[in-house]
Structures are given as structure tokens and as C-alpha cells.
Design a protein that fits this description.
This protein is of the alpha+beta class. Helix content is 19%, strand content 43%.
Length: 136
């Protein structure tokens, strides 16, 4: 009987005495389904995905190439996309600004974001806004 108790201890369950026999019950035997696991359904960009997108936007705008796009990829989440400047630069509140469109792809999900960046005093473009793209 001591061997059965030892075996029960190694099998990850618990044992109890029922009549004259030792019975082993696994913790998985008592699953009732009353606790529902939380499943994340929002496949939108994470904060780190947005950081990669902002960096790509700043890079492509700083280079100033016409009709250029800058790819980005977040190895932590598997998300990827590209950033493409739109139209030409314009003045806003005393700064030179430019709009851009960013793609977001993760698994089977694809979406778009629109943003605005303005040129900072040190020459880099700083992202002023980045939000889901609304088709007009």
C-alpha cells in the first residue's frame, strides 16, 4: 500500500482511502467548466507595435524620399506593416507637418492607421497622432 501512495504522489494527483483500497484522483478529473478562460479577442496593435510604427514613420519622413514607404516588424508580437507618407508637407501651428498611412498585419488581421507628424527643432519628425483609419 505504501507503494501506491508513493505512485500517487509522483503522478500529480492526490490519494484517499476508500474502503480498503487506495484510489488516486487527478486534479484534472474535477474540471466542471464553471470557470471560463479569458480569451483576448482584440487583435489590434499593441503598445510595442505602435512604437515600431511611430519609429518607421519618423524614419521615412526624415529621409524625405518621394513616394517612399518604410516597412516595420515587431518580432515580439509577429505584427508587421509599412508606413507611407501622404501628399505634401503643410504648415500647422508654426511647424512643418505631414500626414501618413500605416498598415498593420498580424496573422489573418489587416488594418490601417492614419497619422500626423510634425518636424521638430532637431530635424526629426515627431508623431503627433496615430489612430485607426476612417475612410471618407
Amino acid at each position: 500500500m505504501a507503494g501506491a501512495l508513493t505512485l500517487a504522489g509522483y503522478s500529480g494527483g492526490c490519494s484517499y482511502r476508500m474502503g480498503g483500497a487506495v484510489t488516486t484522483a487527478s486534479l484534472d478529473d474535477d474540471v466542471t467548466g464553471s470557470i471560463i478562460p479569458v480569451v483576448k479577442t482584440d487583435d489590434g496593435p499593441s503598445d510595442s507595435d505602435l512604437a515600431f510604427t511611430r519609429n518607421a514613420a519618423s524614419d521615412v519622413l526624415t529621409r524625405g524620399d518621394r513616394n517612399a514607404s518604410q516597412p516595420w516588424e515587431n518580432p515580439q508580437t509577429g505584427a508587421r506593416g509599412s508606413v507611407t507618407p501622404l501628399a505634401t508637407a503643410y504648415a500647422s501651428e508654426g511647424q512643418m507637418c505631414r500626414d501618413f498611412l500605416a498598415s498593420f498585419v498580424k496573422g489573418e488581421t489587416e488594418s490601417w492607421m492614419e497619422g500626423e507628424a510634425c518636424k521638430a527643432s532637431h530635424g526629426r519628425w515627431e508623431i503627433r497622432s496615430l489612430r485607426p483609419w476612417r475612410r471618407s
